[in-house]
Amino acid sequence: MNDVLAQVATNTETTRNAGNAILYECVKAIMTVESESGLKVLAVNILGRFLLNRDNNIRYVALNSLTNVVSEDIAAVQRHRMQKCATILDCLKDPDVSIRQRALELTYQLVNGSNIIELVKELLNYLVVAPPEHRALICSRVIPTRRFAPSDKWQIETLITMLSIAGNHCDDSIACATVGYLTLSEALHGFATHKLFRLLRDELPRVQIALMHVAIWCIGEFGNHLIVPYNDSLTEGYSAIQIPEVLGLLQAVLKSHLATILTKSYVLTALMKLASRLDSGQIECQELVKQFITSLSLELQQRSCEYLSLLDGSWKEVLPHALARMPAADATILCSRQQQEEISSHSRFSSMDRVKKDQEPQGSAALASPPTDLLDLDELLGGTVETSREQSLAVDSHTDNVLPNDVDLLSDIFADASSHAPPLQMHSTELPASNVRTSSVPGERVARVPVYEKDGLSITMDLLKSQADITVTDIMCTFLNHTHKDFERFIFQAAVPRYVSMEMRPASGTKIPANNLGAITQAITVKNTIPSKPLMMRLKIQYAVGGRQIIEQAQVSSFPVL
Hints:
The model is unreliable at 345-441 (pLDDT under 50). The longest helix has 20 residues, at 331-350. 49% of the residues lie in helices and 14% in strands. Helix 13 (209-222) runs parallel beside helix 15. The protein has helices at 2-11, 17-32, 37-51, 56-72, 75-78, 81-91, 97-110, 116-129, 132-142, 152-166, 172-184, 189-203, 209-222, 243-255, 261-277, 282-290, 298-310, 319-322, 331-350, 364-368, 377-382, 389-399, 409-413, 417-420; strands spanning 427-430, 437-441, 444-454, 457-466, 472-481, 488-495, 500-504, 519-528, 537-545, 548-556. Among the domains are: 1-110, Serine Threonine Protein Phosphatase 5, Tetratricopeptide repeat (Alpha Horseshoe); 447-556, Immunoglobulin-like. The chain is α+β, with helices and mostly antiparallel strands. One of its GO terms (cellular component) is Golgi apparatus. Its main location: membrane. This is GAE domain-containing protein.
């Protein structure tokens, strides 16, 4: 078999797609059977030639195949790794987003101790132009490369650079990891604090929020390093910073429009720690903290009052312990969490793979395919799949006869959730649609259903069913914000059972004003192909408030019968 595969791989012409298809199947066969190492290298070379093809479909297949080869048999790629890296890195600059995503995943898998500096540099360059919705995943892929880092200083510089590029989009774990590495590298406290101070000072009008938080934390913990110069043999060094300049920067942060309640809390803590460690500036620190005694935020008001009480002479014995430097994190625990995040990020990345056009069902084949797209939690929780209304109805009409009557509806909806859902951290709430108000007008039936209310967000659904087609229901969702802060980047998604087809229209906006000053709406049309079964819906709500990303789930299990 090895001889036959070698002959096919060597003699097949690639001037036409038929030849490329044969070579692709040959590569799959080589990697599947127990072939010789030389034959596997030949297969990798074929995939390398595919990467040079101008056809994006062929390049995508090559990237996807190389990803599978690296994950299963990295030794086959090891010999020619550096020759392929340049071509793969070029794919990160491709206009096709699916090519860039597959190249990004493959680049991460190729990282080792000899090429980490070059590859991470390319990953950071790609991070600059990556879509905002992909930046958090890219950051989570860079973090685990720490095990190949040439030095602690390089790793800290990489994390700081990443925060300066995508600090508004990465989650809290990236900032926490940066702080964790800083506490473990005592020799670099001065370097990191000087570097973060200057970044915060230079970029404050447009600084990334995560970078701001890490910089404030370091100024509070290691601010004593700022008042002395930092020099080493590898860098030009940093000159000493005067105490008034340090306090002036923290005051500027407090006045910044970017400062959230969490940011101001960090600043108050940093001021207290500086007051307990510096030789001067205590009065200025107290004055800045005292400004928040009358703050409208209960958190800031309480924090400032308690901090000022600590500075009272009666608490002198407690003060050094209360404001002591945070102990370094346990390196073993940190590595364990890093491995868990690596597994989690790999699962999330896999949900972003391309759905190739040549694999889409057409004609009669579409009717025979199982209708899983509407209900895949992969798509609900990780992305979206656009399916035409007509195709959905055609699929549903063929599934009416195969759905068993005795299957629990909720388990039927999310039967594949355990095997396909990405590992996202969410809160799940089940809300039966109670307290329904109904009214009737000639020719149609209407009902109002409050389906969700939590943390100041309320969602109401107005159901409208026409007499012309009792299987179709028009739903208008209304979203209100009862808190005193705007809800930004609001996204609403829904999933329905297989016997229901759904069409969601774009929402009227992505920002819900505070204090009920405005609402956004989103229209949904559903068709229940089995009227004897109830309409049910699982909701996913996500939005940002106060610098935090909120993700919630809710389930509406008993819509009114209209």
